Amino acid sequence: MKLQSLTSTNLIRTDQAFSTKEEAIRYLVDQLDQEGLLHSADDFYDAVMEREALSATGMEGGLAIPHGKSTSVKQAAFAAATLKTPIEDWESVDENNQVELVMLLAIPEDEAGSTHLNLLAELMTRITDPSYKEKLMAAKTSEAFYEALDQEETEDVAETTSDKLLLAVTACPAGIAHTYMAAEALVRAGKELNAEVKVEKQGSNGIEDRHSKKDIRRADAVIFAADVAVKDQERFAGLPRVTTSVAAPLKNAKGIIEDAIKKSRDPSLREETDDSHEEEEPEGKSFKAEIKDSIMTGISYIIPVIVAGGMTLAFAVLVSQAFGLQEVYDQEGSWLWLFRQLGGEMLGTLMIPILSAYMAYSIGDKPALGPGFAAGIAANLIESGFLGGMLGGFLAGYIIKFLKKHVQTSGTFSGFVSFWLYPVAGTLSVGAIMLFVIGEPLAFLNNGLINWLEGLSGGNAILLGAVIGTMVSFDLGGPVNKAAYTFCIGAMASGNIMPYAAFASVKMVSAFAVTGATIIARNLYTKPEQEVGKQTWLLGLAGITEGAIPFMINDPLRVIPSLIAGSAVTGGIVAYFGIGLNVPGAGIFSLALLEGQPLLLGASVWLGSALIGAFISMILLILSRKHKLKKQSTNLTTEEDKQWKSA
Q1: What domain of life does the UniProt record list for this protein's source (predicted)?
Q2: 277 among known catalytic residues
């Protein structure tokens, strides 16, 4: 395969001088842009730096391979540079790596399985050959480097015959560099240790070199070198396994192969099972990493539900208020009522169980799905919101993990244990805990909050407005938010219409703030976060706070205070001006229903206070996000680094 078709002498530079990783990447991005390969250099640079935040792209032996997938890339290509002076602080698999060769890969977002991506995979495979890499690093001119790309040498490694067959699966978040380099490293180490190693790559091309059933039956062990969930793990049920990060083989492939061979000789680690038997628990993942992966898995599954449900509900609300169809909106069985129910059920019924179920799945695999859904349904029943759902997801996952560790069997009975005992025992256990242990304290908390709010009414209007604002954005639809809603509805029934006006205005703050932050400081947020942020303002117009939930779940200690600060200001302003709303509803079209001030003044204050609060929250979101990223960049040992060190 011709690697030269992916680059040119204009994209290769030798003996360059860069003082930082960012400077080197920016330079190579500009080279790609000057060759007309990018729609936007800034967008692609952001994509590369986003990938840098996932894991180290520095390898070993002076090599670094930054890369990114982006819609700003016109066609797959790579740019390269050799350095006069090594960059010593490039985050690398080998802590002592001093980068002297940088190869920047550019991949279009939708180019999976294409010839170009196959060529990039070929580059990753070749670059693990020390002699090939040294030839590239030794090139003194761009032309010499270009010519060396396709001067392949025949490997001087004798064919081996071994009765040991080791299977491996490699996968990294981007599915490009580490996936293929780890695969090649394992194969080479296997040859040196007289073991046959077959590797399945789960990358941007999908599943490549998929292991056959025949190979799985005769394999002695399996190696999972992955930083993302391995697809179809159940195929390897019963095989002894080694689980590690995708970067570990680049540093210690021999050690991993030796560990797999050692485990293959232990009869207790190999079970005669049917195809339904669940695999052993993955090794090597810390509690902190497991919690983080669980949360991120849950978030990834609820984002489509939040967006689809929120927009459907927003459509019903906006149509009813814009065209005066409130009666149709409230009429059971009408077309607008059905849309309202559809969106409301997705947000109110489905969202929390899906979050809980897939958090549990991340921890305990498929047997945890049933208990996870049960935990989410229980969270809805006790009105504990997404925080209760998260707690339920953790409980379900770790209950199943405990059962899988302590209640094991083999043979035909294993199917019964995996698909009956685990889910049923897990569901009953987590259901009992959620319904009878957590439920009553949460109900007590809700009632206490409502009574406290009632004590703040009257002369403490500004304080009441600030408290309502705080409660609305504290948990975005959870029990605290619902307590505020219940109080506002009760106050409205008693003739006090100010609390609900504050409530309705504050409900726009979190959505507007998230949209503003992801647009103004887009470089601080991931692509999925940017996409969600673009849509939350529409949810905010309809008074729907749930669009900000993914941001809150991902970083609650920073996001919650940021949203609360702006929301408290909004609630206080509305209360100060004595603006009221005597119709239950939310959203921008409540403007026409406001009371307590002349319509124009009241509408201006009511909407303006929401924008002021959103601006305050947006600034705090941006500042706290910058602080978080700065803290991460200066942390010498991330969780992934620890895993590499222990590998």
Answers
A1: Bacteria
A2: no
